[in-house]
Amino acid sequence: MAKKKQKKLVIKQVRSKIGHKQNQKRTLEALGLRRIGHSVEKVDCEQIQGMINVVRHLVTVQEA
Q1: Which structural domain range is residue 49 located in?
Q2: Count of domains observed in the chain
Q3: How much is the pLDDT for 2?
């Protein structure tokens, strides 16, 4: 069986987590984002989409 190629997302933190709710800070940490300008590449799945939705005002997302 051929494996299905999964889409990848590049997630970049563009705003500070200072002054935001604790769950949003923890979500950024779970995504692997540490500071403004830092970016990570993740596989596009429902869990990642949910995490992005929680911090959508702090990050930008592009397809890789």
Answers
A1: 20-63
A2: 1
A3: 59
The DSSP-derived string for the chain is: -PPPPPPEEEEEE-S--TTS-HHHHHHHHHHT--STT-EEEEE--HHHHHHHHHTTTTEEEEE-
Query: What is residue 4's predicted lDDT score, i.e. its pLDDT?
Result: 75
Residue 8 covered by a domain: no
* For helices 46-54 and 22-31, angle between their N-to-C axes, nearest 10 degrees: 140
Residues of the chain with pLDDT under 70: 1-3
Please indicate, yes or no, if residue 59 is contained in any of the structural domains: yes
Cα 19 to its chain centre, rounded Å, is 19
pTM: 0.89
Alpha-helical runs (H) found in 11-56: 22-31, 46-54
